[in-house]
Amino acid sequence: MVEKMLLELLSLEKSLGLKKTNKYSTQGDKVPVLQTNNGPSLIGLTTIAAHLVKEAQQKQLLGSTAEEKAIVQQWLEYRVTQIDGHRGKDETRIILKDLNQYLEDKVYLAGDNFTLADILVYYGLHPIMTQLSVQEKEKYVNVSRWFNHIQHYPGIRQHLPSVVVLKNRLYTSGH
Amino acid sequence: MRLYLTEGNPHCLKVVAAVELTGSRCELQFVGVEERVVPFLAHSKLPCLQLDNGNYLFSTNAICQYLFTLRGKEPSDLTNQWLEWEGTELQTALSGALYMAVVQGKREEAAGALQKKCAYIDQSLMKRSCPFLAADAITVADIVLWGALYPLLSDSTFLPGDLKALRSWFERVCAVAACRKAVESILKGKGLQALKPYLQKQPAPSQRAETPASNEPEGGESADRVLTEEEIGAAAESWSKGLSAWPKPKPIEHPVLPQPNEKNVLITSALPYVNNVPHLGNIIGCVLSADVFARFCRLRNWTTLFVCGTDEYGTATETKALEEGLSPQQICDKYHAVHAHIYQWFGISFDHFGRTTTQRQTEISQDIFRRLLDRDFLLQDTVEQLRCESCQKFLADRFVEGTCPFCNYEEARGDQCDKCGKLINATELKSPQCKICKGTPVVKSSKHLFLDLPKLEARLVKWLEDSMVSGNWTPNARFIARSWIRDGLKPRCITRDLKWGIPVPLEEFKDKVFYVWFDAPIGYLSITANYTDQWERWWKNPEQVQLYNFMAKDNVPFHSVVFPCSLLGAEDNYTLVNHLIATEYLNYEDGKFSKSRGVGVFGDMAKETGIPADIWRFYLLFIRPEGQDSSFSWSDLLLKNNSELLNNLGNFINRAGMFVCKFFEGRVPEMELNDDDKRLLAQATWELRQYLQLLEKVRIRDALKCILNISRHGNQYIQANEPWKRIKGTDADRQRAGTVTGVAVNMACLLSIMLQPYMPSVSASIQEQLLAPPQCNVLTEEFVCILPSGHQIGAVSPLFQKLETDQIESWRKRFGGQQPDEGSANQSKTEAKPAAETKAAVAEDAGKDADPQRAKQLAEEVTKQGEVVRELKAQKAEKAVIGAAVTKLLELKKQLVLAEGKTPEAPAQKGKKKK
Fold it and tell me: In this protein, which residues make up the domain named GST C-terminal (chain A) (predicted)?
C-alpha cells in the first residue's frame, strides 16, 4: 500500500514538473513521509501532495475559491479514508455508486476545473477500475467517462497502465 | 448556509464548535439519524453543510476548514497533516473505542484502544512546546481533534495523568466558549451517554482495526540502527576490559533484608486461591512474571525479596471441603502442596512460598483491625441474611439455592441465577433451601463491621496520585484505580458469618470471621513474617523499600484502593505499593480456560506433555498479555519453539560453541577485532541496554525480543564471515575465523546471562557447556569479553528439541475439552498402524477437523513464510537455512490442508522438485 503511495507522489512530482527530487520514507509501513529541507517532515499522502502543489506554484490545483478549496479537500479525504479504507465488494460498489451519482453533471470532481482531487482519486480508483468488467464500466458510466478523461490528461497517467474504456455501449440500458 | 446535524452524533461537536468560533452565519437544523440529506450519497452522511448555491459538503473536516477559510484562515501543511491524521488514524481507533465504551460498556478496553493515539498527540505537543497543535493560537486542527476526542476525554478516567501536555491542551480548548457551546448543543449535558442512541444504530466497527489480539510484538524486529562512531568505540573499549572490571554477584544470604543506601526491591505475586489448580493464564499473570522480574533484580545486584503463598480462608474452601469430605485445613494442606509443586516445576524462585492460615496472619490481621477500630475507621451496620436453624449458622451465598425471583429458574444460586444471569441477593430467593441440610432457612439480621472507605478517600487519592507519578503502574492498573475513585467509594463489609477464617477479636462478634478480601493481602506481610522475624524492615519501611505487586487485572481494585485504605487507616508507616503491574487475560486457543469443561492446560498437565518447563516459560513470556489480551495456541507454540528457539537462539549458541570445539580444540582463540566486529559489539550493547531499560519498566515481553535480536545479529555475523571456510584458508583467514569464533562464543555467554530470568535451566546449561565463570552472572550496561582467549570450554550439545506437528495436534485435541470417548478414539488412531491405514485415518480426521478460522490464519502464515523463503533464496542464504525455512513452509501447508478439511495430497518431496 505505502509503496503505491510513494509511486504516486513521484508521479505527481513529474506531473507538476518539479525538478529536485524529494526524500521519502514511510511510517509504520502504511503512511508516506516527506523529509523537507526546511522544517519538520510531513506525514500523510494528501498533506504531502498539497505541499508539492504549493511548491510547484500551482495553487490553482487546490481550488480557487473557498468553496472549491473545500470540495478539493473533501475528495482528498474521501480518497484516503473511503477509497483506501474500503473492504470488500460491497463497499467498492457504494463508492462507485456515489461517485457515479456525483459526477453525473460534472466534468471534474471540483466542477469545471481540474484539481489535485482528480489526480489522487484517479490514482486511488485505478486498482478498482482495472478489476471492473466492461458491463460494470458501463453501469458506472459517469465514473468511467471521468476516469478516461483524467487518464488522458497530459502528464497524469505516468506509471500506471491505461484502462480501456469503450465509447460505444455494448449493453442496452435495460441492464 | 445550512448545517444539518443529529443529536448525540459525536461528529457534530467539531462542526458546531467551528461555526461558533468563526462566527459563521449558518442555520442549524437537527434531523433524524437515518435521514439522507446529501442527494448524491446512497447512505445518510451527517453532519453535512448545504452551501448557498445548493452544493453540499459531507466531510466534517472539510466543513470545519471551509468555515475557517471563509474567515481568511487558510490551511497550512501542519493543519492539513493533523486533519489527515484525524481522518485516517484517529477516527479508526476512536470509532472502536466509542463503541466499546458506550454500547458495550467495556471502558477499559476503550481506553486501551485509544492509548497510543493519545500518546502520539502528547508527544507532538511536547516536541513543539506550543499551547496549540499547529500554532501559538487556536487553529482548525485544535477544533477538529478536540471535537473528536471530547466525548471520551471529558471523562477524566480516559485522560491518562502522565500525558501532561495532552491534558493541558485539552483543558485549554475545552475552556474556549465556542467549544462549551458545542458541547451543550450536541450532548445536552448528558456526557458520553448522550451518544448511545446514535452509536447503537451504527454498525459495530471492526475490532481488528486497532486492537488485534495479536501475539506479535509491536514494532516488529528492530531495524538495523545507525550506530555512531562514539558508540562503536565505547563498545570496543568496554569489551577489552574483560571480567576484571566486572562487579561480583552479590551472594544471597537468608533472610534477605533491606540495606541502607542500596536499592531494595520487595516483590509480591498475587496469592493464588488454594482450592484450584492454577492454569497457564494464572501462571503468566502473576507468579511467572514476578519471577522474571525477581531474577532480573538479583542479576542487577539489588537486594531482592520475592514472596507469595496460597490464600486459604473463606467460603470456597469450606465448600470444597464439604465436596471432598475433608476438613477445611486438610483441603488447604492438600492444595497448598499442589501449588507449591507446580511452581517448583516451573522454576519459580520464591524466597518464601507461604500460606495465610498461620498464627502470624491472625496476629497481624487483628492488629491492623484494632488500629482501624481505634482510629474510628470502622462502621457497624445490620445486614439481612439467611440463617439455617438446623445447621446453626448463617448461610453464605454459596450455601443457598432457591427459585430465581426474576425468571423462576428453580436452581438459582444465592448470588446469581445461572439461567438468566442476573445478580441476586440471597434473601430475595423464592423458597430458599440450605444446601447442606436441605432445610428452609429464615431471614435474620446480623451485625457486621464495615471499613469506612469514604472517610479514607482523601488520603487515598493523595497517595495514589503520588504513587502513580513516581512509580510504574501499568495503564490498566491506573485506569481501574481511577474508575473506582470516580464511581465513588462506599463502606465495605469486612466481616462474615463463617467459621473458616480469622476470628474477629471483639466479644460482640465472636462468632464471626474476617471477610477474605480484608485479610488476604495481609498475607504478604504474614508470609514475610514467617520467613523472618525482622519482617517489619520490609513492610514498615517505605523510605528504603520499593514494593512491586504483580497480578492479573481483576485484582487491581483490592491492591490499589481497598488494601491501601486499610494500611493508610492503620497509620503504622506501612510500605505501600509503588509499582502495580497488572496483566491482561490470556485466552486458550481463542476461547477461555475452563476447568469444568476441561479446556486449557493447567499447571499440573504442563509437565505431562514432556515439554521442558523452560520452553513453557519462554512461550508464556513471549505471549505475555502485556497491554492487551493474548492467546495461547499450540501451533504458535510449535512455531515459536522451532523458529525462535531452535533456529535462531539455539542455532547460534550451538554453532559458536561447536566452532570452538571443532576448529580450536575447545579453547577460545585469539581475537583481533576489526570494524565489523566492533560494530557488532556496539549492536549487542545497544540491545543489552534496551533490555535493561525495558525490564526495569517490567516490560517483560518486549525485553525478550532484545535477546532474540542479539542472536539474530550473531547468526548473520557468522553467516557473513563463514569461519568454517576460512579455517581452511590462509593464515590471515584462519586468524579471522578465530576472531569471529571468539566473539561469537562470548556473545553466547552474554546471552546466557540475559536469558537467565526467562529460562533459568537453559541459561545454566549454556554456562555449563561453556564452562563460564560463575562470577559472570551480573547484568551491567557493558558487554565485556568474559571468555578470554585460551579459556577452555566443555562439551557442546544442542539446547532445544524440535516440536513435531502430530505431537502438537494430539495435545491440542487432548486439552481442547472434547468428549472423552471421542478423545480415546482419536488416541487409538494415532497408535502405530501400517502407512496406508494411517493415511486413511488422517483423511477422516481431516474432514472432521475442518476449521475455517484456523485455515485463514494458516493461509496467512503460509504466505508470510513463502515470502521468507523467496527472500532467503534471493539473498543466496546458506542451504541449511533455506532448507529449514522450506521445511517450515511445507509443514504449514500441510496443516493448512488439514484445517481446510481436505486430504493431504502427494508427499511434500514432489512439490519440492518442481521448483
Answer: 51-174
